[in-house]
Specification:
The chain is an alpha/beta fold and about 450 residues long. It has helices spanning about 20-35, 75-80, 85-115, 130-135, 170-185, 185-200, 270-280, 295-300, 315, 330-340, 350-360, 370-375, 380-385, 390-405, 405-420, and strands at about 15, 40-45, 60-65, 120-125, 140-145, 215, 235, 255-260, 285-290, 305-310, 325, 345, 365.
């Protein structure tokens, strides 16, 4: 349901701006619900077709209410994201992301003004949130739902599966990687810089990051070592809503292996077949969540007697599994670590190779390329993580850290404190005469 724009007097109204995908919206809705419990009014503002992603009654949804927000726009966007690699898929995905950013930059100023928004939670991968907040002189915090994207010379670019390599060789390698990454990302960075100049704001990318708070759901131990984190940055633990228990049918004593390609890649029937075949080969049963990407016929044809569903409550199902074969999507990785189970990672795109590299570094996963997965490499990798106890020990260390963390409630408390009381909701550096520009939150 779309918000009417009416907010209860005396309550801070916070807008959440993020890409319209489940991987970003779901954890932010959990964060928003925790913030709502502190007395704030929370609204996700996005494409009208993204409304079903906001399933918690504590968090409202508001459409952009603009002619450009038309039926079919979300499907076009998701289709491009589903094939994010290769000489055709990667540029197309970047152009589509740039078009989404442009749409949000065009429509959010009017939408946030209409809704009476007082502050913004801006997902780190969608630069429109921070820039529009600066344009409207609204305080904002940065929400890091995936890997921290802050650039450091010794940390490889976040979309490459390079291992952490301190020293001159690693430094030079990373420098070259960032140069290529900057070139590829020009459709997005150019769009953002153009709107910043149009609005009289400094286009420097560092202003995309809040100096009030940058809050991540990434545990500190999962990231590569960092030497230059800003004072406002905080690692955390996953932002999740409580889910009811989900009982799986147990016809025998075979161990269960959770198999998922996330919400965007679930149509890859051949890769799922390689997963289920590997599970059967090691004497296990695959539990497949394909996100609606497979037809009933495709699901029924998967080898190895798997248990196949379109959707499963993965935070609960993973607790009954012995391992997971995943594409490296950040939320599913966090849920597997929270369950204390080892992972076979098959990264496909986005930050998944970089997540897999971090998992390999901490010893919680064995990494297999998608090409090798189709050539039989999943079976030995799965056998390895099931029989070598070091993988489970590494995963259980994260499970302990995550269980002790505050999750969405702790993150909400930090966001609430960052915005402060009404007296200081707008920092002095932003309370400027009309006509002057603001450059940071």
């Amino acid at each position: 349901m779309e918000s009417s724009g009416h907010v209860i007097p005396g309550r801070r109204h916070i807008a959440i701006i993020a890409p319209p995908t489940a991987g970003h919206i779901n954890p932010l809705v959990a964060l928003g619900a925790a913030l709502a419990a502190t007395g704030s009014e929370i609204t996700v503002v996005n494409l009208a077709e993204a409304a079903p992603l906001v399933a918690d009654p504590a968090v409202r949804f508001a459409a952009l209410d603009h002619p450009a927000d038309r039926d079919g726009g979300l499907a076009t966007y998701m289709s491009a994201l589903a094939r994010p690699s290769g000489p055709i898929g990667l540029p197309r995905m970047i152009r589509t992301s740039a078009a989404m950013t442009r749409l949000l930059l065009d429509t959010l100023p009017a939408a946030l003004t209409r809704l009476g928004v007082d502050a913004v939670i801006a997902d780190s991968v969608e630069p429109a949130g921070a820039l529009v907040a600066r344009h409207l002189r609204l305080p904002f915090v940065t929400a890091v739902t995936g890997l921290p994207l802050l650039r450091e010379p010794m940390v490889p670019p976040p979309f490459l599966g390079w291992p952490y390599r301190p020293g001159v060789i690693g430094l030079n390698r990373n420098r070259g990687g960032y140069a290529v990454s900057d070139l590829l990302m020009k459709p997005i960075t150019g769009t953002v810089a153009g709107y910043a100049r149009l609005w009289g704001l400094d286009p420097d990318p560092r202003y995309q990051w809040s100096d009030r708070l940058q809050i991540a759901q990434c545990p500190a131990g999962l990231d590569f070592p960092r030497a230059a984190l800003p004072p406002s940055f905080r690692y955390g633990t996953p932002w999740r809503r409580c889910e009811p228990d989900e009982r799986l049918p147990r016809e025998d004593e075979r161990p269960l292996i959770f198999c998922s390609l996330g919400s965007l890649q679930g149509a890859r029937r051949s890769l799922f077949a390689a997963m289920t075949r590997a599970c059967a080969a090691v004497g296990a049963r695959a539990v497949v969540a394909h996100g609606g990407g497979l037809s009933d016929r495709e699901a029924a044809s998967l080898p190895g007697d798997p248990l196949v569903r379109a959707f499963l409550l993965q935070t609960r199902v993973l607790q009954h599994c012995s391992a997971a074969i995943l594409h490296g999507g950040f939320n599913t990785v966090l849920d597997a670590l929270a369950a204390g189970i080892p992972i076979v990672a098959v990264p496909l795109g986005f930050e998944q190779p970089a997540t897999a590299a971090r998992l390999a570094r901490v010893g919680a996963a064995c990494v297999v390329s998608s090409r090798d997965a189709g050539r039989g490499a999943l079976e030995p990798a799965l056998r390895r993580v099931l029989t070598d106890p070091s993988y489970r020990r590494a995963a259980r260390l994260f499970a302990t850290e995550i269980a002790a963390g505050g999750g969405a409630n702790e993150a909400a408390a930090l966001v609430d404190a960052a915005f402060g009381g009404w007296a200081d909701a707008m920092p002095a550096t932003l309370r400027r005469p009309t006509g002057e520009t603001a450059c940071a939150a």
